[in-house]
Write a structure and sequence with these properties.
Layout (H helix, E strand, L loop, with lengths): L1 H13 L1 H4 L4 H10 L2 H34 L1
Keywords: Membrane, Signal, Transmembrane, Transmembrane helix
Length: 70
């Protein structure tokens, strides 16, 4: 199991283009415009969309933990 994890980690580090990829349409629009502010906005939007589910699950687990402890 440790060997598999290590191989996946090495593969992810050796292939940065794949790990930093965007969808084809977003990439095409951002490359054609050349506007850095728009690209920053899209990247920030992706980060916010990715973070919200983790925050919600964290809050849910906090309330479940609090309820189980009381």
């Amino acid at each position: 199991m440790k060997k598999l994890f290590f191989l996946v980690l090495v593969a992810a580090l050796l292939i940065p283009q794949v790990s930093e990829a965007q969808c084809a349409m977003c990439r095409a629009v951002l490359e054609s415009e050349g506007n850095v502010a728009v690209a920053q906005g899209v990247n920030n939007g992706i980060k916010y969309l990715m973070a919200v589910p983790y925050v919600l699950v964290g809050v849910l687990f906090y309330f479940v933990y609090k309820k189980m402890k009381a």
